[in-house]
Structure of Flavin-dependent thymidylate synthase:
Amino acid sequence: MSITPDQQAEIDALRATPRPTLRAVSEGMEKHLYTAIPVLDHGFIRVIDYMGDDAAITQAARVSYGKGTKAVQNDEGLIRYLMRHWHSTPFEMCEVKFHVKLPVFVARQWIRHRTANVNEYSARYSILDREFYIPEPDKLAAQSTVNNQGRGAVLQGEEAARVLEMLKADAGRSYDHYEEMLSQDGQDGLARELARMNLPANIYTQWYWKIDLHNLFHFLRLRADAHAQYEIRAYADAMCGVTKDWVPAAYAAFEDYRMGGVNLSAKGLECVKRMLAGEAVTQETSGMSKGEWREFEGMLGR
């Protein structure tokens, strides 16, 4: 992980000067505030700011003031009810702002989630650092033969070494040319906004990313899933840990109903009822396509 001296000084100063506040505070989130959590080889996430906690969710759902006389158990039950019945608005009352350092190719996948506010480091105005994501050997995998978007077996021996050397050499060469094109030694050089186009997709960028809890849960449901690309999943996993400390009741409901639960189609539900009644249901009698049936059996662990 690469935190610059200036960033570390800012973190130390902010954490050294706590201030009293009347706003809702999550003790679990306070321990994460400003602190960088390492991800991949040079990346990190850190919480810059947040708003709300579990109580903010139930307060919004009840449209009342304060905690009132409701017990904690009632709050947890209400949060689980909201999650179970897809009531999203109360979860939108909580927000979090992350500072994220990530490879450009991960950022381009991440930005597909358009429900956040994003401000990215500008290579038009500043020069990017010589930092590239180079996968660990056990993350170098061949193309999957059954999934056009996935990975297959891990590369071994000479093939793995060959690929790693190419990744390192190409990244270094591209950055060398980037610096040469900028030509800051008395030559005119190329504009930064043009010189950056030669940089590889594994170079690191940074951004501030602010999102409400409902849409954060949607991001985590997709990107912390076992089928997500490893590199973005590493960031999602780190965010899961932070979110669990921030809103423990909401995260527990999210884990149960979204991460650990499944959604059945009307045909799938009908098949379950028929199976419980003792009928031997097959793909041919289910009314489902082969793909639907395969996914359905996967949900049932068959």
Summary: The CA atoms of residues 146 and 188 lie 51 Å apart. The first strand starts at residue 37 and ends at 39. DSSP finds 13 helices and seven strands in the chain. Strands lie at 37-39, 43-51, 95-103, 117-120, 141-143, 151-154, 204-212.
